[in-house]
Amino acid sequence: MESPEHSTGARIGMWLFLLSEILLFGGLFLLYATYRWKHPGDFHAASQELSRLDGTLNTAILLTSSLTMALSIFTLSRERSARSTRRASLFLGATILMGCAFLVVKGFEWAAKFRHGLYPSSPVLLARPPGEILYFGLYFAMTGLHALHVIVGLCVLSTMLALLLRGSVGPERVAPVENAGLYWHLVDIIWIFLFPLFYLIS
Fold first, then answer.
1. How far apart are CA 59 and CA 185, in angstroms?
2. Which domain holds residue 186?
3. CATH number, position 43
4. By CB atoms within 10 Å of each CB, which of 91, 190, 191, 196 scores lowest?
């Protein structure tokens, strides 16, 4: 049985870590806002090079993964049985699969940009206006950093799934899965901000 003191301490530690992540991306969002204010036309023109279909698909994938993550935690917290552990494992496995699907879609999208020469320091991109160069630099930096967070999240969730299957975490010890869920929700929230900033510029 997990002690309440340990559980509370783990949650506080996770919230402090998440706060540092929010500050990191907050700084990048501020940088984006500054450059967009200076180059509104270039940012709008560059955004037309992105696939809104891919962005919308990835948004739907991550929102659904947040739902399955929440269902996994809810199942463990509300149902104290071996069956609840199995159901939570299925929901967690679904979350992991959707996270992998997100990376696959993002990989195809990045590959298309490289084929068209729209990547940092490429001759094609350097021939474009300064605002478009800044746009794609921020696009690759911010979505790349987000993708790295998705990869870390998948490693954490995979570890939680292994611990669930081994019985090391479960209805009597939910805090590790809850903390993993908090991290995953943060990853999803960051994407919800990235999607309109890069794909829906008007």
1. 13
2. 4-199
3. 1.20.120.80
4. 196
